[in-house]
Amino acid sequence: AFPIKESKLISILPQDSSLLGQNAKILVKLPNGSSEYYFLKIATIGTTGSSLCEGEYESLKAIDSVCPGFVPKPYGWGKCKENGEDAYFLLEEFRELKTKPADPATLGKQLAELHQKSQSPTGKFGFHIKTSHGRVIQQVDQWDACWASLFGRHLSHFMDVAKPVFDWPEFDRLCDLTLERVVPRLLLPLQENGRVLKPSLIHGDCWDGNTANDAKTGNAIIFDACSFYGHNEYDTGNWRASRHKLSNGEYIRAYKSIIPPSEPVDEWDARNILYSLTFNIGNAVYIPGSDQREAVFHDLAFLCQAYCPDFSSLSYPFPVIEVENKLDIY
Fold first, then answer.
1. What enzyme category does the UniProt record give (predicted)?
2. I need a labelling partner for 76 at 20 to 30 A (CA). Which of 173, 212, 272, 306 fits?
C-alpha cells in the first residue's frame, strides 16, 4: 500500500540495479488527482533481504527524526514476489539527485550534525534491530555501554564471514590477534581516564555511491543506510580507501573542522584503519574483481605489529608493513 490511501499506480520506471536487487522510480496518482513519485527497492538476496529492507527502513527513520531531509523519508517495507521468488521491498521518498558524491562542505557539515544531535535511546552503543551492510547482517542489536565490546562483536562477524572465503590461515591468525589485542588497545582508551564517548547515530556505509547533493535544495543527502549508535569516527572509516572519491582529504578536513578527533588524538589514524576493516572486508568478499583482500591483510598486519609489543615473538612471519593513504587530520 502507498503512504496515501486510494493512490493508484501509473507507471514503473526501472532504475540502476545492484548486486542486491532491483530499483525503480514509480509514479502514482493520488486521490486528489495529483501525482507523486516514489522510490522502490526490491532485494532479491533471500532471507537476508528482510534484514536489509527492515534495517534500512529503521535506519532512515531514525536519521530523518534527527535531521529531516538528510535522507529520503521511508514509507514502508515488507515481503513480495520477484519473478516468482520470495523477495523484500522498501518504499521511500523519491529524491532527484544532482551530483554524486555530495560536495565535501555540505556532507561534512550535515554528517557532523547527525552525529552531534543524535541521542541513543538507551545511552549505550548498538541498535534495536540488526541492520545489514550489503549481504552481511551486522551484529549490532545488543546494547552495550562499552564501545570496544560492541565494535569487537561487529568486526568479529565480518571476519567470520571472510575466513572461509579467503581460506588463508595467516589471515585467520591476524584476525584473532586483532580482536584479542588491537581492538581493546585502541578503543578502550576512548572511555578511560575520565573520557566520555557519546554513542552517535551513524549511517553505517557512507561512501560515494550512498551520498549526493539534492537537485532541489543543493543539500547533501545520504541513503542505503545500515545504522547503529557507535563512535562517530566509524562513519569516516569508509573514506580511507583510495577507490572512493571520499578519500579526497577535503572530506575528512571538512568533517573534523566541526568534530575534532577523539582523545587520544594521536591514535586517530590507527582507529581509522581499524574502522576501515569492515568496509574493506565486505568489498573483498562480495564485490567481483575486488583487490581488497591483500589490502585488508596488510592493514591487519600493520595494526598487530604496531599495537602488540610481543608480535615478533608470536611466530607471525609477516614483513613490516608501510601504511599508505594516511588521512591528514591536522
1. transferase
2. 212
